[in-house]
Amino acid sequence: MTQNSKARLLLSDLQQDQKATVKTCVANGVLKQKLLNMGIIPGAEILMIRNAPLRDPIEIGIQNYFLTIRRSEAKLIRVEAL
Amino acid sequence: MINVALAGQPNSGKSTIFNMLSGVNQHVANYPGVTVDKKSACIKHHGESYQIVDLPGTYSFSMFSLEERVAKSFLLDEETDVIVNVVDASNLRRNLYLTFQLLELGKPVVLVLNMMDVAKRREIAIDCDMLAQMLNVQIVESIGSQQQGKAEILAAIERASQQSMTKPFMINYNELETYIAQLEKQITLESTIARRWLAIKALEGDDLILKKVGLTTESIRDLTATVHTRHDLDVDQSFACQRYASADLVYHKCVEEKQLGKVNLTAKIDRLILNRWLAFPILGLVIYLIYQLSIIGGYKLTNYTWPLFASLKNIVIDMVPEAQFIDLPPITDFAIWMVNSAIALLNYLPIFFILFALIAILEDVGYMPRMAFILDRVFRRYGLHGQSTLPLVLGGAFVGGCAVPGIMATKGIADERARLATILTVPYMNCLAKVPFYTLLLGAFFPNQMGQMMFYISTVTLFIALIVARFLTSTILANRETAPFIMELPPYHLPTIKGVLLRAFQRVYLYIKKVVTVVMAVAVVLFVLLQYPGVPGDKMAGFRDEANNALADFDRQAKKTGVYTLVDEQTEVFALINLYDGYKAKRMLAGSKKAVVALDQLFLAANPQLFPLVRPENSSRADAKKINKAVRKLSKVNKRLQMAIKSEKIANSFLGLFGRALEPITRFSGFDWRINVAFLSSFAARESAVATLGSIYETGQAGQRAEESIAQDGVYTPLHAVAMLLFMILSPPCIATMVVVKLQSNSYKWMLFATFFPITLGIIISSLFFTLASSLGWSGIQMMQYFYICVAALALALAFIKIKPSAWQVGE
Ligand SMILES: Nc1nc2c(ncn2[C@@H]2O[C@H](COP(=O)(O)OP(=O)(O)OP(=O)(O)O)[C@@H](O)[C@H]2O)c(=O)[nH]1
Ligand SMILES: [Mg+2]
Questions:
Q1: What pLDDT, on a 0 to 100 scale, did the predictor assign at position B82?
Q2: Are B110 and B235 found together in one domain?
Q3: Is residue B58 located within the same domain as residue B206?
Q4: Is residue B654 part of a domain?
């Protein structure tokens, strides 16, 4: 595995206030539908806003609104830092 | 009749628009088969009647939550003529995602641009003509919270209902178009829905639509695989991307935003509310305020409503036949019992009203999802959900609450498993009506450690609830549907007073309608079980002898006075006693001196001859005073005998027999039949436990309270008391709660489970600890402490054992 870490960046890895774009999403079924409906589509811009006070879930800004998602699901979304 | 559906994404203001259109003449019911509220109203406009339905918010035509499912099936199945799509004008781009799909349905649509005030404040300019032209739809601007746009929306609905769809709106899905056309040809279904829409949804693999049009999941799977190999495209993703791209296009052509990139107010507020250090203190404060205002404040309010109910009771008592000394006519007995049972429940109305209003405010403001965000991690450990917080708090996570509103507040939880688990655990919280029972027992057996014991009781319930939740979700609920936690944090909004009050009234009304009726039915059954077969003849004869002695005594006293003619017949004596008791009851309710004077005059006018004997202070005759003394004594004897008869009746009643029959089982927890009867009768309303225990133990001795007589009775030790406390802590919710469990879980099976699981658990735990404590020689306090330690340790330990991952958690 010589790929640099940037290419393997996951949504759950983002630091506070870091910006990124969605690359791919490896979810299936209902979860995939839900993520697509909420605007997590390739190319969409994401801003990592904050962790919950207990670190999980996280709050992100996407498509001009705020979305919360658990880390376990955020791990399924690959992003590219901006 | 024209059917109009209000659809839109969550929080776009549908309900506000609905309230504006319909006023107060709305009708709330449930959608068939599910527990989601269906609000509808019938209005008249230009001679035509319109049936308007407020649908739950939905992001798309997906079926993620119960509410989305309801909205979807309503838009598809019912004979909907016009769709009113309410969108948040300040967030047009994202709202268009649903709008496109609604337009594609091919039904007449009215697009309502709501929240224009917010858009204006953020300097978002929308070119409505352009938008109307691009989407080929009527557009109305509105500000729901300021009642603006009603006439325009009605006019647009009227026009839409008359127009026939000429050219439905279309998005070009590029490569997918050939496949859509191909499916369109395969679909032969005749319906009011555009065939193209059905084809698109079929291609998206929507099960509901596939069934509707008669295609198989496999054929679609093959088709998507073909698309994937030929074009290297993921079907679902391309649909979503294409919709977002179209939304982007429309947005750029029609909307001009001047403050782009500026931090909006919601983000600023969230910096505080969701701050890492402040989030918990603020959450605590909010919960504390709700608790203070509703439970404590509402309880204070009951001080003012109580006299109202009490005078209602007096009115009823005035209407039924009077007692003939110790012989209470059964109908009178029954009426008093029913009124008491009704009052026990109605007493809580102020609490419920305040609570429901506060919840409505929190919902409208947008704090609920934030609460879930903050606490999700804790609750997830036990299979619950962030949104379980409020139900548990309302149920009585502190000193006391009520399971009924708590369970009602579980509606919004998207995760089905967590929702059921919450419904089934809320009843373990400390019900407000259990508190008198606790204080009774603590007062009798632990007068010096009351604070300490109360602390154990009120905190241990939360641990128990968490353990039970964890147990249920990893056993019988393990295979229930769960939902990933993906939730919008909506922008903050100021709620409208009208919206909040309407919702609070609707929920209180539903409570009265559904709960009170059932509880009254149960009260009837309990009455019969407690009354019959009645006091055995020989015992009754004994009571009668005593009564006759007392009456003879009174007669002797009366003879010595000059007013004997007034009371020389037995019916006159009975009337005098009733007058005396009736006056005393009403006198207690008369607050001021003036009220007392008025009351006196009223009674004097009605009973000019007898009343002076009841209230001799206003009479100058010494005879009256003498008689009065005798009356007082007679009344006391009467009360004592009535109590004794009642207690004897209970002992001999069916419920009493049942209580005895249960003794072999309850023996291990130290409960004798009397305690069993108290618990059984408390099932209608928790208050009855104290009342029944009181009347069983009522010795009739003046000035002795129930707790004293229980403590002095000598049969029970502090260990018995703790066993009773443990059972009460775990014990099943009252009938009202059961009804709500049935309503919210929509199944009698869960209702029965919610009843018998806690009973079994309560019996096992109290037997276990009672047996341990008696054989190891623990004190009552020790028994409670050990129980507390066990429960707390178990709850904490469970938090560290990982829960089984959900079925949807797939991926590479
Ligand atoms: N500023 C402003 N607030 C509004 C307007 N319309 C509604 N609101 C507020 O927005 C919040 C949400 O409104 P609702 O009517 O409950 O939204 P809804 O679409 O029914 O939401 P769901 O039923 O959850 O899908 C409430 O606090 C309303 O008072 C508006 O035109 N301007
Ligand atoms: Mg609504």
A1: 93
A2: no
A3: no
A4: no
Pairwise CB contact (< 8 Å): B485 & A29? no
Query: Do residue B88 and residue B114 come from a single domain?
Result: yes
Same domain, B127 and B184: no
Question: Testing the interface with A: which of B370, B377, B482 to mutate, by most A Cβ within 10 A?
Answer: B377
What is the number of domains present in chain B?
A: 3
B186 in the same domain as B99: no
pLDDT of residue B687: 62
Indicate which residue's Cα is closest to atom 13 of ligand 1: B13
How far apart CA B782 and CA B560 sit, in angstroms, is 62
Per-position DSSP letters for B512-533, written without gaps between them: IIIIIHHHHHHHHHHHHHHHSS
Q: Is residue B155 part of a domain?
A: yes
Whole-number pLDDT of residue B32: 59
Model pTM?
A: 0.81
Could you tell me if A59 lies within 8 Å of chain B, comparing CB atoms?
Answer: yes
CA triplet B558, B562, B563: central angle to 5 degrees? 65
Which positions of chain B have pLDDT values less than 50? 699-703, 807, 809-812
For ligand 2, a single-atom ion, which residues have Cβ within 5 Å?
B 14-15
Ligand 1 atom closest to residue B114's alpha carbon, by position in its atom list: 31
Exposed, middle or buried: residue B47 (CB in 10 Å: 0-12, 13-18, 19+)? exposed
ipTM score of complex: 0.93
**Amino acid making up residue B618:** N
C-alpha angle B713/B718/B723, rounded to 5°? 110
User: What is the token pair recorded at B348?
Assistant: 């809580």
Shortest-distance ligand to the CA of residue B499 = 1
Classify residue B215: in a domain, yes or no. yes
Do B154 and B181 sit in the same domain of this protein?
no
The residue type found at B662 is L
Please check whether residue B475 lies inside any domain of the structure: no
User: CB B244 to CB A63 under 8 A?
Assistant: yes
Dist. CA B599–CA B589, nearest whole Å: 10
Which of B32, B80, B76 has the alpha carbon at shortest distance from B58?
B76
Tokens coding B116 = 């224009």
B342: which residues sit within 8 A by CB, 6+ positions away?
B516, B520, B523
Q: pLDDT digits over A26-81, tens only?
A: 888 888 888 999 999 999 999 999 999 999 899 999 988 999 999 989 999 999 99
Using the atom order of ligand 1, give the atom closest to the CA of residue B365. Answer: 27
